[in-house]
């Protein structure tokens, strides 16, 4: 039972870490949500903004000027939280690999393996919380921005909705948190 829970937690942690990394690197945190006939599909991410021509499939992207340039708060905070979540989740997965019972590292000291699994669980929990805060922060900011424009009857030609990268960040963060609960509460 213990080995099955460990492998399940490891698989979930690995998948969730990949989701977090993909969410951080991809550029569809906001997508245009116009109901009219559009000839292009616009995505905004943490690092760049891309436009895809729907007729011929050509995609062009504009990188944001610099990491240190003045950017909206939602981008800076989300970048910081997501990068922190990525680093913590990667560290937790590496620690968890060494703490698994099926790995021969520290086989003679099962107490150290238990501590490694619990430490990985706590680190995954922190990564999940940071990633969830970053993803939800961005999503709420997109919603508030859209609600402000609608309440003031302002239409800029396109309005944005949450993109798949935002949902991927939320899914990865939730997976990290569930893996954390498995490792810290249910395993021993």
TrEMBL record:
Its record classes its membrane topology as: Multi-pass membrane protein
One example GO MF annotation: structural molecule activity
Family annotation (InterPro entries): Claudin, Claudin16, Claudin_CS, PMP22/EMP/MP20/Claudin
Q: Which UniProt keywords apply?
A: Cell junction, Cell membrane, Membrane, Signal, Tight junction, Transmembrane, Transmembrane helix
Provide GO CC annotations from the record.
Answer: bicellular tight junction; plasma membrane
Where would one find the signal peptide in this protein?
Answer: 1-28
Q: Where in the cell is it found?
A: Cell junction, Tight junction; Cell membrane
Transmembrane portions of the chain: 87-106, 118-140, 162-187
Which PANTHER family does the UniProt entry name for this protein? CLAUDIN
Q: Which family does it belong to?
A: Belongs to the claudin family.
Q: What does this protein do?
A: Claudins function as major constituents of the tight junction complexes that regulate the permeability of epithelia.
Return the protein name: Claudin
Source organism per UniProt:
Phainopepla nitens (Phainopepla)
Gene encoding the protein? Cldn16_0
């Amino acid at each position: 039972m213990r080995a099955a829970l460990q492998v399940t937690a490891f698989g979930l942690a690995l998948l969730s870490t990949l989701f977090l990394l993909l969410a951080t690197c991809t550029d569809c945190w906001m997508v245009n949500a116009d109901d009219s006939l559009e000839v292009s599909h616009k995505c905004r991410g943490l690092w760049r903004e891309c436009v895809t021509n729907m007729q011929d499939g050509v995609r062009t992207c504009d990188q944001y000027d610099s990491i240190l340039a003045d950017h909206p708060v939602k981008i800076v905070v989300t970048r910081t939280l997501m990068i922190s979540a990525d680093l913590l989740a990667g560290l937790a997965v590496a620690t968890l690999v060494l703490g698994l019972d099926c790995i021969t590292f520290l086989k003679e000291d099962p107490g150290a393996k238990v501590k490694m699994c619990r430490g990985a669980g706590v680190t995954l929990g922190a990564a999940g919380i940071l990633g969830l805060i970053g993803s939800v922060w961005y999503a709420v900011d997109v919603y508030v921005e859209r609600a402000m424009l609608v309440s003031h009857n302002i239409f800029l030609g396109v309005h944005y909705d949450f993109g798949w990268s935002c949902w991927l960040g939320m899914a990865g963060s939730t997976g990290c948190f569930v893996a954390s609960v498995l490792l810290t509460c249910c395993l021993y």
